[in-house]
Amino acid sequence: MENKTRRLVVIALYTALALILSYLESLVPIPMPVPGAKVGLPNIVTLISLLTLGTPLTLLIVTARIFLSGFLFGSMSAILYSLAGGLLSLGVMALLLKAAREKLSLITISLLGAVSHNLGQLAVAAAVVQNMNLFWSYLPFLMLLAIPTGIVVGVAANLLYRQLQKINLFK
């Protein structure tokens, strides 16, 4: 019983933290060359959740965060774009963590997650407006943005994960 309760509390905390980071990210305008581009701070929680809870529960957390932030601070279109990017990114990072965790750093996995997030959102945007030129014209900018944002998220997740390991929260 205690493990189930503890896991439920951790899921709720991760979801709340990801939602707060999403909200804070929307409040702080960071000058980006592409409209709507963000750092992706909630992905810190996604990475930590993948490492501590596994893919199925992280899928629950990511989906809950996307719908909650969309309903509270965004729109239905924001939910659509976030789902595309968030779920593709989650899938890529989960596969990389499972297949190559010893070979790839958390920073590299985060960077590839950022790239896949941008690809997912860009694919949906091109499909919505039915214009593949949109995809190809924004692709270079979004790939370049994925590098610093993926690194920032990866470094933050790596530091946080090391601290969580020290306090034995998940043993």
From TrEMBL:
The chain crosses the membrane at residues 6-24, 44-67, 135-161. The keyword Oxidoreductase does not apply. This is Heptaprenyl diphosphate synthase. Keywords: Membrane, Transmembrane, Transmembrane helix. The keyword Transmembrane applies. It comes from the Bacteria. It comes from Eubacterium callanderi.
